[in-house]
Every structure is written in C-alpha cells, then in structure tokens.
What we know:
With 265 residues, the chain is an alpha/beta fold. The protein has helices at residues 3-21, 24-32, 41-47, 73-83, 102-110, 124-133, 150-163, 175-183, 204-210, 228-236, 246-249, 254-262, and strands at 52-57, 60-61, 65-66, 87-91, 115-118, 137-141, 167-172, 188-192, 218-222, 241-244. Helix 2 (24-32) crosses helix 6 (124-133), helix 4 crosses helix 5 (102-110) and helix 7 crosses helix 8 (175-183). The protein is globular and about 50 Å long.
Amino acid sequence: MSILAEILVRKRAEVSSAKQRxxxxxxxxxxxxxxxxxxxxRAVLTQASRPRIIAEIKPRSPSRGVIRADFEPVxxxxxxxxxxxxxxxxxxxNRYFGGELAYLxxxxxxxxxPLLRKDFVVDAYQVDEARVAGADAILLIVAAFPGADSAxxxxxxxxxxxxxxxxxxxxxxxxxxxxxxxxxxxxxxGVNNRDLGTFEVDLEISERLAGRAPAGVVxxxxxxxxxxxxxxxxxxxxADAFLVGEALMRxxxxxxxxxxxxxxx
Length: 265
C-alpha cells in the first residue's frame, strides 16, 4: 500500500469517527451559519504583488520527518505575514504532518491573510469543518479520487466549498490528473512536483503543465521550490503562485527566508 493510500484509509476512518462526535447535519448547519466573510484565497493569487507565495505551516512530513522542532504556528504565521506571503497554507493532518484543525483558528486570529486548509479532503464533512475553523480555501487532491467518477466527486466537493464561500485548490501530478481537474470545473489548480509514490521531485512537471492551463485558470506550483531562481524559472513557464513549506520551515527565521525567496533573481 502506498503512503497516499494508507493516509486516505486513515482519513476516512477519522471522518467517520468525527461524525460520531458531531453529526454531519449539525456541522453543515454551523458552516452555513458562519457570518465572517472569507478572505478571497484565489483572488489574492491574482492580485498580490509578484512573486505570490503561499507559505506553509507544517512541523513534519512523511518523507522528510521532523521539519521544525521548535514549531509554533502563530509565530510562523506572523513571520510569513511580515515576510510578504500572499496567503498561508495550514497543515491540519495530525498523524502524518503534525498539524491540527485548531491551528486554522489561531492563525486566523493572528494574521489577516487568506488561509488554505491543507489536508486530505475526501468528504463534504471536512469542507464544513474548514469553514467553521476559519479556512478560506480547501485542498482537493485528484489522486485521492481514483474512480471513474473522480471529476464528478471533485466537482461535488468544489461546489460545496463554493456554497460556503471557500475556494478549492485542486492538486494534480500529471497530464491525466490535469485533465480531470479541468473536467471538474477547477479554476485554481496546484501542480505538485513531488511524486506521491516515490517522493521524487521534478520542477519540469510544473513547467509543462502550467503552459497548458486555459485562460482564467490560476496555476500554483507546489513542492521542490527552494530558491528565487526556482521561482523565476516556474513563473516564466506560466505559474501564477507558489506553495512553499520546507524551504521556509527549516530556516531559523521563516520570515527572513521568505523575503529572500521573494527577491528577484
């Protein structure tokens, strides 16, 4: 079993357990009753000054182990805000990435930037959780929906997100998944340069797919981005924004690292 398949099995079990604690209809009602306006995650990726970086908050990962031993989400978020991030990605998966859903709430109170709930979303329940917790966008990974009706499943979750004012970043890893994302109606596509089976990284994936995006589709390059030269390379290929985590989280001062990354090469 691949690490992704293992994560998805556990994630579905987590969602099932969560529904026992709080019924889906009650959570849905709470999400629909949220009065605070969302902050326009997709919009900022088209309007903020370039390069538009989504700075990620995560203490560890399955492939790299512990990334930041002295992890403190609020201080990281404030450093990112001061460093010029366009938005912030908050890991909420606990077992594999050390995240917490509660991080969304405390980060939202600390900074005014749009927030992405970075998790393995497989159920509308998680979309509702994201809205209640203070997210402005969710991540939908095409590889998490391997069936023949994957585009329809992604569209259903995208539409639920949209009904709550949330944007949906639909993540792909290859040409086939890119077509599925477009079929689902996605107008915000993340291209992950990391193979989720081997964990190998190749920036050419973003270079190739960014150029294929139709007009109106915002492309976010993800993974393997460590330098201003990487940013310049992918921006010239058509990427609109960049999701960066490890390169920032490993540095003593993530804000300083972010400013350096945003420096024109």
